[in-house]
Amino acid sequence: MSGPGKGQFCKLANQVTIASTMVGLCEGLIYAHKAGLDLNHFIDAISGGAAGSKSLHLYGNRILSRDFEAGFYNMALALPGLALAQQLYLSLKAHGQGDLGTQALVVALENLNNVSLDQKTKS
Fold it and tell me: For the whole prediction, is pTM greater than 0.90?
């Protein structure tokens, strides 16, 4: 991933792909169920073909066993700084500045305080 930010774009594209794959898996299971297929046999049958995927391998049987446990550890933390950062980024978006980088958090704070750290404007 050459270039600034390309790794982040790759991660996001990966998440989009995973979400789409999961929707396809769930729709396939619903269709197979309505068609009267044995869902365990269905998963086994498609695993080796073009529909086979890491998502199918990781989640197919978990779906059938109704295991909806999150795959990450819930640390139950209060992170008010993170919530504040989200609100500030939403403020940037509302001001038409949502395409700026993460360092533009300072612009949101400048907007709130009617100041600018820009050395050219000196406020």
Answer: no
